[in-house]
Write a structure and sequence with these properties.
Layout: E1 2-5, E2 8-10, E3 13-15, E4 18-20, E5 22-25, E6 28-30, E7 33-35, E8 38-40, E9 43-45, E10 48-50, E11 53-55, E12 58-60, E13 63-65, E14 67-70, E15 73-75, H1 85-89, E16 95-99, E17 102-104, E18 107-109, E19 127-129, E20 147-149, H2 184-188
Parallel strand pairs: 1-5, 2-6, 3-7, 4-8, 5-9, 6-10, 7-11, 8-12, 9-13, 10-14, 11-15, 14-16, 15-17, 18-19, 19-20
């Protein structure tokens, strides 16, 4: 396996190309673009991604731990597949931060995201399934077509978030905070007809 430790990658572009058998440890990626590329048997540990685009990558046997993302556009990533199941069960995450990121059509399955700060993110079309999101901050997020299935959302903050509508029956929501008018979507998800709004 080829290794890069503490390296900086600036404006690297991969479109439909393949990268295989590479370890990236404590590397910095700035203004890189990865579109439809195939990454196979790669590992990312402690890396930082700034102002990067990661669009519909094909990830095969790729692992990621404790990476940070800032100002990135990310779509079509299954975050849960980037952490080995035993590590995921111990609370390890592929990322430490997702600041000012667009995370469209991503999958978050079985992750412990307790208290995680998603504030201001565009999570359109993403799926949160069987996650611990207790105390997570979704304030000011765009959540259109985002689904929340069987999650622990207790004490989560959805104030000023837009576009959400999910089942109150399939998620634990005690103490979660919402703001009007968006919270009306929670009532319509129960099959209620609302008038006069």
């Amino acid at each position: 396996m080829k290794e890069f430790v503490g390296e900086t990658f600036h404006k690297v572009e991969l479109e439909g190309e393949s990268v295989s058998g590479v370890l990236f440890e404590d590397c910095l990626f700035t203004q890189c673009r990865v579109k439809g590329a195939v990454l196979e048997r790669c590992r990312f540990s402690g890396c930082q991604f700034t102002d990067c685009l990661l669009s519909a990558p094909k990830l095969k046997n790729v692992t990621m731990l404790s990476c940070g993302f800032s100002g990135c556009g990310i779509s079509g990533v299954d975050w849960s597949a980037l952490v080995e199941e035993r590590k995921r069960d111990m609370g390890f995450l592929p990322f430490d931060s997702l600041e000012r990121c667009s995370l469209r059509h991503c999958l978050f399955y079985g992750l412990d995201l307790k208290g995680f700060d998603f504030s201001g993110a565009d999570l359109t079309g993403s799926t949160f399934d069987s996650c611990v999101l207790e105390g997570a901050d979704f304030s000011r997020c765009r959540l259109g077509e985002t689904s929340f299935l069987q999650n622990d959302l207790r004490q989560a903050d959805f104030r000023q978030a837009v576009g959400y509508s999910f089942s109150l029956e399939g998620n634990r929501v005690r103490g979660a905070r919402f703001s009007l008018p968006e919270a009306v979507g929670l009532l319509s998800a129960l099959g209620l007809e609302l008038e006069g709004l």
